[in-house]
Amino acid sequence: MKLKLKKKPTLILAAFVAVSGLCALLAFSPLAFSGDKAAPDAKADKGKVFDDWRVTCRKNPKDAKKQTCLMTQSIAFKQIKANALSTVIHTGKSKGKDGKVKELTFITLITPLGTQLLSGIALKIDDGKEYKEPYTMCNRAGCQVGMVFGDKMIDSLKSGSKMLVAYKVPGNKTVKAEVSLKGFTQALKAVTEGTN
C-alpha cells in the first residue's frame, strides 16, 4: 500500500517543545526556550500564514520582552491522519570563536517514531545536490534531524520551489515528502524580525 501525503501548514506544539529541547541539547542557540510551563501570556500565538508556512511566536517565560518565532510546515499521511514530516525553522544569534556574533538559521526535520535511524535523512532543493544527515534524537514528537543552514543553503531555499526529503521506515520502504517553499522568504523574514 502506498501512503499518500497531504500538505498542511500547522504548528505542532510538541514540535515547538522538541525543537527547543534539541537546540538546548546541542547548544546550538542561546535563544532556545525551555520546556518549563509558561505563564498564560507566554504561550505561543496562533500565528500568521505565509502561503505554505505558518509563523508563530512565543514569549520567553523569564523575560516578557523577549520572544522566539518559528516557521513550520507539516505533511500528513492521508490514510492514517498522522504526520509524515514536520519542518521547523527558527533563527538565533551565536558568538563564534572570533568573538563576532552571527545570525544563524536552524532547521529541524521531524519524522514519525519507528523511522529507521541508521539510514538518516536525505534532502535536496529542487534538482540540486542531495545532502544526507543523521538523526540526532527521538522523543514523543518523533525522530529529529537538526541542522544549521548557511547563507548558500538559505539562498537556495528562497529561490527554490520545493525541498525534497526522504527517509526509511520498517520494511526498508522509503517515504518521500515534498516540502513546499512557497512563502519561505516572507516567513523567514517574519521569523527573523519577530525573534529578539
Assembly form of the protein: single chain
> Helix coverage percent of residues?
10-25%
**Whole-number total of structural domains:** 1
- What is the SS-derived class? alpha+beta
Largest sheet, described in full? 8 strands, antiparallel
Unreliable sequence segments? 1-44
Strand content: over 45%
Draw up the topology in text.
Blueprint: E1 5-8, H1 13-26, E2 48-50, E3 53-60, E4 63-77, E5 82-95, E6 101-111, E7 121-125, E8 131-133, E9 137-139, E10 142-149, H2 151-159, E11 162-169, E12 173-180, H3 184-194
Antiparallel strand pairs: 1-4, 2-3, 3-4, 4-5, 5-6, 6-10, 7-8, 7-11, 9-10, 11-12
Describe the overall structure:
This protein has 196 residues and is of the alpha+beta class. Helices cover 17% and strands 46% of the residues. It has helices at 13-26, 151-159, 184-194, and strands spanning 5-8, 48-50, 53-60, 63-77, 82-95, 101-111, 121-125, 131-133, 137-139, 142-149, 162-169, 173-180. Strands 1, 2, 3, 4, 5, 6, 9 and 10 form an 8-stranded antiparallel sheet that branches. Strands 8-7-11-12 form a 4-stranded antiparallel sheet, with no helix packed on it. Strand 4 and strand 5 (82-95) form a beta hairpin.
List keywords for this structure.
single chain; 196 residues; alpha+beta; four-stranded antiparallel β-sheet; disordered N terminus
